[in-house]
TrEMBL record:
GO terms for biological process: arginine metabolic process; citrulline metabolic process; positive regulation of nitric oxide biosynthetic process. Belongs to the DDAH family. InterPro entries: DDAH-like. GO terms for molecular function: amino acid binding; dimethylargininase activity. It comes from Cyclophora tenuis (Marine diatom). The active site is at H21, C116. This is Uncharacterized protein. Keywords: Hydrolase.
Length: 123
């Protein structure tokens, strides 16, 4: 890797047609928690990732696409999946994370989501 021993790089082959890129399917809720979809796609991804994470599994793939930084989680509202919303609300409460649900319907019109609109920098 060009990062030497500083960054661990794991190649993960994505299933065809399920999502545009990896960060739209599995995201960090905090330093020790991943959010991933239930079902085949989530199973495939998680078997290739390190096992030292807590994982919140939700049925709605789009709701997995979240941005969490500084104790705040920006979450996509309006997908219609109550089970996903309840699971993420619970996970945020348990981790003392401020869950903020956002209307992303305009982003969805162009197949966009929260991670498409964010770049996190450690400044």
């Amino acid at each position: 890797s060009i990062f030497g021993d500083v960054v661990r790089v794991l190649p993960i082959e994505l299933p065809q047609g399920n999502a545009l890129h990896l960060k739209s399917m599995v995201t960090h809720l905090d330093d020790s928690t991943l959010v991933a979809p239930k079902g085949f796609v989530g199973d495939l991804l998680l078997e290739r990732l390190p096992k030292d994470y807590d994982v919140v599994r939700i049925p709605d793939l789009l709701t997995c696409n979240l941005v969490a930084v500084n104790g705040i989680a920006l979450l996509q509202d309006g997908t219609g999946c109550l089970e996903s919303k309840e699971a993420l609300d619970k996970a945020c409460r348990e981790r003392d994370i401020d869950a903020r649900w956002l209307d992303t319907s305009e982003l969805a019109k162009v197949d966009g989501a929260l991670t498409c609109c964010s770049v996190l920098l450690d400044l």
